[in-house]
Design goal:
By secondary structure, the chain is mostly helical. The protein is built from five helices and no strands.
Length: 74
């Protein structure tokens, strides 16, 4: 299992605090599939923070060791 660096974890927290209702657009920018976005929304129907955090987790897992704060900024 891949654990995020402290920097990546901090970036996730900042993103979760600031993205809000536009989390789907962020997920699409991170190349999360529409099917996974729908599944995230179904899993956390009324928890916006968890929807954002889960989409970031999906992105991180797809990038593995290549997941870095600089990639999120891009």
């Amino acid at each position: 299992m891949f654990f995020p660096s402290p920097d990546l974890r901090a970036a996730f927290d900042i993103i979760c605090d600031n993205v809000g209702k536009d989390w789907r657009r962020l997920a699409r920018q991170l190349k999360v599939s529409d099917a996974k976005i729908d599944a995230i929304e179904e899993k956390y129907p009324r928890n916006l923070t968890e929807q954002v955090r889960e989409s970031l987790r999906v992105w991180k897992n797809s990038r593995r060791e290549d997941a870095a704060v600089s990639h999120l900024v891009d």
